[in-house]
Design a protein that fits this description.
This protein is an all-alpha fold. It starts with 10 loop residues before the first helix and ends in a 23-residue tail after the last helix. The chain contains 2 helices and no strands.
Length: about 60
């Protein structure tokens, strides 16, 4: 995923942005779905397929006020 609004930041940079008040947090956002015990009973850890294999993760931040 890439585009004009795609930015990269380390966890340290994101934490610094949070401390500086540069990230928006919606305190009235709805709670996520309640996951039943059956969901967690069926959940399984999936390890990477090979050393050095990375599972892509996307963090999307809506920075527009």
């Amino acid at each position: 995923m890439s585009g004009p609004d795609t930015r990269r930041a380390t966890l340290d940079e994101i934490e610094a942005m949070m401390e500086a008040g540069e990230l928006h947090h919606e305190p009235n956002a709805p709670e996520g779905p309640d996951l039943a015990d059956a969901f967690w009973a069926e959940a399984a850890w999936v390890a990477p397929r090979e050393p050095g294999h990375v599972i892509p993760t996307v963090l999307t931040l809506d920075l527009c006020p």
